[in-house]
Amino acid sequence: MAVAVSGLWCPNPTISRIPTLESRRMSVRSGPLASVASLSSPPPTIQIVGGKAPSWYGDGGASSSNSYGLVGVEGDEDIDWVKMEADLYYWTKALRPVQWYPGHIGKAEKELKEQLKLMDVVIEVRDARIPLSTTHPEMDSWLGNRKRILVLNREDMISKADRNAWAAYFSRQGMKVIFANGKLGMGSTKLGRLAKDMAANVNIKRRAKGLLPRAVRAGIVGYPNVGKSSLINRLLKRRMCPAAPRPGITRDLKWVRFGKDLELLDSPGILPMRISDQTAAIKLAMCDDIGERSYDVADVAAVLVQMLIRIPSVGAKALQDRYKIDNDCLCGKTFVQKLALHLFSGDTHQAAFRILADFRKGKFGWVALERPPR
Questions:
Q1: 62 sits in which H/E element
Q2: Most C-beta atoms within 10 A of its C-beta, which of 27, 31, 137, 141?
Q3: Strand 262-266, strand 254-258: pairing
Q4: Helix (H) or strand (E) holding 88
Q5: How many Å apart are CA 258 and CA 25, to the nearest integer?
Q6: In 3-state terms, what secondary structure has residue 126?
């Protein structure tokens, strides 16, 4: 259920010891999940260590721009992504928790764990715009030593520099990575070939035991709406699995056969029962990888605006040019309200939805919301 939130915050405080996205993920894996505030409780009190408390309506936007020092610069290589994550962590502290766990996910997760025992190779699909935020914190423990292929889908929505950075990062982790575009089919042929190659030893062992060869079994797993079913349909070159641009379409596990030597398992999107990392949750909302009823659209759009104006390939000017309104204070909430008055008779929900829809359709260009940890 969406909850109206008062008191969102504008950038940009100086915060000490704010954990990075990767360190927060490690803490989730190594310890119990953090408790989640009830929907009836007031917004948490934020203590700022150093710096100046920002205001949604103050003139802190200009100083925020200068603190990044990047508006108007070509390319995003010089962004301080650690600082970006720190700001995002601060902004989300004032918001109600984003949580979404439809009933079918619990059942699907239990069935998936059973089916994993039958798989020769696992294909994990993530959103290329937010690869760290679209991996389940328990995925590594589920897979163990099982062979894995990582697919970063929606490669068309990030820049070449982003692709190179993520390719290098995952290569250092020893992972096989394929960039794909499920809608257009790019990467699907390479994926099918790699899955067969990685599991070739299965039939070598079977022949040694005097058994007949069998099809390689590959399971496709990942968060909701990252493009799992679309990839399968592209591999098969026909619509075998239901797919739509919203989370929660696939609700049951389904095996489909690809030729004589490959079987694919399409599975529903799997999310943690409780998302303790709220910076990851807000990015899931921005990229439409979580149900819309789990968050307030106006809040998410406001935070997205504050991220986009700090990304040089977008910046405040791109937002102004697209919507023909000024963004002089660089404040997300103010911008959403101005757009609502300008185009939607004051309806902030419609204005926020327009901003999110434009981002998801790539109207602001190739925009990644994460970069690899250094």
A1: helix 60-68
A2: 137
A3: antiparallel
A4: helix 81-93
A5: 35
A6: strand
Residues 6+ apart with CB under 8 A from 262: 192, 195, 196, 215, 216, 218
- How deeply is 136 buried, as exposed, middle or buried, from its count of CB atoms within 10 A (0-12, 13-18, 19+)? middle
pTM of the predicted model, to two decimals? 0.75
DSSP H helices in 185-237:
188-198, 201-208, 228-236
Closest CA to 342 of 333, 351, 334: 351
40-65 confidence digits (pLDDT tens):
333 333 232 323 333 333 333 333 43
pLDDT at 24: 54
Interatomic CA distance for residues 111 and 115, integer angstroms: 6
No. of helices (H) and no. of strands (E), the chain: 14, 6
**What are the percentages of helix, strand and coil residues in the chain, rounded to 5?**
40, 10, 50
pLDDT, residue 224, reads 85
